[in-house]
Design a protein that fits this description.
The protein is built from ten helices and five strands. The protein has 364 residues and is of the alpha+beta class. β1, α9 and β2 form a beta-alpha-beta unit. The protein is rod-shaped and about 130 Å long.
Amino acid sequence: MFLLAVAFGLLVYDERVKALSIPMWLFHLDQAIAALGCAAIWLRRRRPVELAVALIVLSAFSELIAGPMLLMLFVVAVHRPPRTTAAVFALSMVASVVFAVVRSDTGSPLMLLLVGVPLQAAAVGWGLFVHHRRRLVLSLRERAVRAETEARLRAEQARYYARQEIAREIHDVLGHRLSLLSVHAGALEFNPGAPAEDIAHAAKVIRESAHQALQDLREVVGVLRAPVGELPQPTLADLPQLAEESRRAGERVELLEETAGAVPDGVGRTAYRIVQEGLTNVRKHAPGAEVRIRVAGEPGAGLAVEVRNTAPAAVPVPASVPSAGAGQGLTGLSERVALVEGRLEYGPEAQGGWRLAAWLPWPS
C-alpha cells in the first residue's frame, strides 16, 4: 500500500513537472504533504478513520495526497462498519468538489470530478467487498465451530443416556435376581436346622437364580457391544414367568391381566420392569407380604400397572438382605416412565402396605 501511494504521487509529480502552472513554493509544499501522507500509511491500523479524515481534508487543496487518501478510504471500508465508511466517503466527495473549485489550475473542474469521484468510489467499493467477504468467512468459521460444539454435546448426551440405560438395566435385572438369592440364603442362615428337603430346595433355587443372574448379566453387558434393539428384551407376555419365579421363592403373588389386544413392545417392557421392581422391593422391605399385581388397559385408554402388597409379616429380616442403594430402583422407574410420557405413583397405604402404580400411554 505504501508503494502504491508513492507510485501514484510520482506519476502525478511527473505530469506537473512537465507543465508547472502553480507557484514553486506551493508545489514543494504539496510534495512534503504527500510524503508525510505516504509515511502515515504505516499507522493505518491504529486510527484509520482519523487518518482518513485528515488526508481527506488535505486533499481539498493538495493534489499529490490523493494516493494515500484513496488507500485510506479502502482501509476504512475494510476495517470499519459500512455506516462509518459511508460518512467518510461523503466527506471525500465534498473534498473533491472543493478541490475542483480551488485548484482549477490543475484542469477542468468537471474533468477533475469525472476522474476523482470514480476512483474514490472504486476504492470504497473494493474495501466494502473485502469487508463483507471477511465477515462471511468469519460467520462460516463460527458456524462450523458451533456445529462442532453441538455435535460434541450431542455425542456426550447420547453417551450419558446410554450409561443411564445400562445402569437401569443392571439394577432392574440383577436387583431382581440377587434379591431372590438373598432371600433364600438368608432363610438358610436364619434357620440352619430346617429339614433337608427345604435346604435342598433352597439350594436349588439359589443355584438356578445365580445361573440366571449370570445370563442376565451377559445380556446387559452386551448393550456395550450391540444396539439395545438387537438384544432379547422382556415384554408383557413374560409377566406370568416373573410371577412364578417369585412364587417359587416363597412369595404369595396374585397376577391379574385385563388387557384388550396386543400391548406394544416398548410399553410392555416398561410395565414388566415396573412389576419386577415392585416384586424386588417387596422381598427387600416386606418379606412375607401378599402381593397383588394388576395390569389392565386397552388401545387409546392407556395401560395401568399396579403392584400392591400388604403389611410385612412379623418375621425378622435376615441380615444378608442388602439395603444399600435404597431408592435407586424407584428413581430408575421414574426415568423409564418419563421417557414414554407416562405417570408413576408410589407410597405407603393406610393399612400398612405399599402401592406402586403407573399409567403408560397405549396408542390406539
